[in-house]
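Deliverable D5.2: sample structural annotation.
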Amino acid sequence: MKRSLISAFLLLASLCAAHSAEPAPAEAPSTEQFSFVQMCDTQLGMGGYEHDVKTFRLAVDQINGMKPDFVVICGDLVNKANDKSWADFTRIKAGFKLPCHCASGNHDVENVPTAESLKLYREKVGKDYYAVDHKGFTFVIVNTQLWKAPLKGESEKHDAWFATTLKHAKARKSPVVVVGHYPLFLKKPDEKEVYFNLPVVKRQEILKLCEENGVVAFLGGHTHKLVINDYKGIQLVNGETTSKNFDKRPMGFRWWDVSSDFTLKHRFVELTMGENSGEKE
């Protein structure tokens, strides 16, 4: 009898202790550290055709030596979209020893895209919008020209895909990096539309979607000068090119480091022609 009472007492004590113990804190989400490169406007023919062919080739060699996980090119792959420029771009891009994900720019699909210009791009390069998953992140490659100069039938599909892709990433608790060509804005979210930014109404729509769905960075090119902004914790970066910069900055690209706590930091890497082509600033 005594033994039964003791056993019951011990069981009751253990249940009370388990009930009163505070729950273990949830572990913070984490990812495996990785790095990637943001290139802007290889734009063969912008800074002189042979010059741009050479600098693109040098950038491929330099990036290969630095061994990031992958590279993204933020549009304007060529200056004039024709058989020669696409053939040269494709040949040089094939030199990457790592994945390369391309966004389309206005010089690739025309300032006012058409069914024909999109068809040509898709034949020569591939999809003009798609998503890539990498180590817990979702990289969403967009066609900003379908926001800048809407094309009936195409822009609606692009918008629906963009919203759905962001929502799916949020449901998976996957931080999003958007990769396109045009910047959303240059200085202020409510600035007027000019050649170098997106229409105000569409811009606000995109910013709202980004804010609500875990977008942490929005990368682009187009400006041919360094433009860095922050919108409610979202990094907006339009970087240096390998063709021609308007702000007299050296040619080069952005190196991004992603830490285990999902923090993103970037730095400029100057394009070099010597033996130290793999060194970062």
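Annotation notes: Residues 33 and 259 are 5 Å apart (CA to CA). Residues 8-28, 275-281 have pLDDT under 50 and may be disordered.
The annotation will be released with the project's public dataset once the embargo ends.
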